[in-house]
Structures are given as structure tokens and as C-alpha cells.
Amino acid sequence: MSAYLLLLFFLFLLPMASAQTYHWGPCPTPMTQPNFNIQQYLGRWYEIEKLPTSFARGKCIEANYSFRQDGTVRVLNQQFYKDKIRRAEGTAVIHDPRNPAQLGVSFSYFTPYSTYWVLSTDYTTLAVVYSCTDILHIFHVEFAWILSRTRFLPPQSVLYAKQLLVNEGINLSRMTATDQTGCKDT
Predict the structure, then answer these.
(1) Of all helices (H) and strands (E), which one includes residue 80?
(2) pTM of the prediction?
(3) For 20, which DSSP code?
(4) For residue 129, which phi and psi values (nearest 5 degrees)?
(5) CB 138 within 8 A of CB 118
(6) If you write DSSP's letter for every residue of 114-183 in order, what string do you get?
(7) Which residue from 16, 46, 117, 131 lies 20 to 30 Å from 140 (Cα-Cα)?
(8) 41, 25, 42, 43: which is closest to 33 by C-alpha?
């Protein structure tokens, strides 16, 4: 019976496998931005490159962060996909004030917070973000984003961000550029 359930589990994951990045073993624990200031991080960020995700397959992908009255952070993601602007609203929280760059993000009341770790940012041009979900210490699903305050980032900045991720042990072989051409600001 347990072999049957394990087979069903992997068959369920198979269609999503091409849209996610899986690796054996537990999640790595990269260093995060020291002295992270959430107030400076708020605002609009454009996705420049990412590891594949099942939830962001379009173009013109951006995220906008703002404070809510309850002290949490509103996350409004937007993309142009299948001829429509699609939005997803979530909530980010700082679980431990001693590590404010290690946020948790959720897009549903029914799901736990996923990691959203800001590895590096200068707040005005570039941010490097990493997320990882550990599955029973057998394998992990990871995400990484290179973000910019503008739709395009100089190549040397992208190389800097990628090197930072590689130095933290994050495999970027599946990282892809996000199409930011022909986008309209809303």
C-alpha cells in the first residue's frame, strides 16, 4: 500500500516537475542580507530572471510590496499570461526580527508560509531572493529570483546576482530570463 501511495505522489509531482526545480537532500541555508530594512524594500520590483515556477509563466512579471495596517506586508504579483493580466495577492511576514531578511510568504489562508529570503539588495536597483521547501529531508523544491526596480538590468548586474547565488550553492542551470519587452506599467 505504501509503495502505491509513493507512486501516486510522484505521478502527481511529475506534471509539475518541468515547472519547478527539484534537488535531492535538504534545503541549503544561504546567508541573507545583513541589516535588512523592509521599509526600503517596499515598492515595485520587476522579475529579471528566475528558476522555473508553476505560478509565473507569463511575461511582464512584477511584484509590489506595501505595508498593511496590521503590520504585515501585502504582496501583489502581476503577470501578462494568455492574453490577460493576472494578479495574485499574498501576505509576507517577518517571523524573527533578528533575521528580518528571512520572510515568509503565503498566497492563501490554507497554505503555510513559504520561505522568502532576501540574499542581497541595494534597495534601489537589485535584489536577489531565494526560497526553498524541504520535503521530508529527501528532496527540496527551490526558487530563486533576480529582481530590479526597472524592467531591464545591466548584464554585469545579472552576472553579479547569479554569482552570489552560485556562491551559496544554488544550482542555476535552469534559470531563465523573464520577458519584459512590450510591457505597460499599470
Answers:
(1) strand 73-81
(2) 0.87
(3) S
(4) -125, 145
(5) no
(6) EEEEEEEE-SSSEEEEEEEEEETTTEEEEEEEEEESSS---HHHHHHHHHHHHHTT---TT-EE---TT-
(7) 46
(8) 41
